[in-house]
Specification:
By secondary structure, the protein is α/β, with parallel strands linked by helices. The chain is 23% helix and 31% strand. This is MBL fold metallo-hydrolase.
Amino acid sequence: MKVKVMQVGPIGTNCYILEDEATNKAAVIDPGDEGDRILSVLKEDGVQVEYILLTHGHYDHTTAVPELIRALPQAEVYIHQADANGAGSQLFPLAGQVADLKYYNEGDTLTLGSLTIQVLHTPGHSKGSVTLQVGDVLFTGDTLFCGSCGRTDLRGGSYEEIMSSLNRLGHLEGDFHVCPGHDQTSTLERERQYNPFLREAMGQ
């Protein structure tokens, strides 16, 4: 398994390219902008893109989706349904732009070559926020950041819900690489020790 990260768009959203080296299949996670740059990396790596996976529906995580779909018509686009119903909203602009948008929810799994992608519904930043678990990696979107957590004052946000989601992530067994939607990567053990929001959520 290989994970590449690119900062895209005006606020530096982390777009991840998840590659299964055994089969050369890939998924693009949160293509927030700059579709041409993302496509260039995919072409350079020579991978077959099976999925475009969205941790939530905010524009800074979804802007490049239509451009990628035009170039990669075989790729299936997944989002939680709660974040796909905002046609015409700047916060949730994706609805209506993807003809065959697919929905995943708590407990669903997707197969990417030899990899299994597990879906954890982790609302709070938005109603449809998810965390994607692949082996020992967590793609946490805007739920869990290095030293912080996502804002809850936007439409669909809830501090109580994000605390519940953080508590759940914090109690996952073992350590994980944390790949958030913005800023630097971390580990779950480091966040358990130093992240004040995660510590509050876990009752520490």
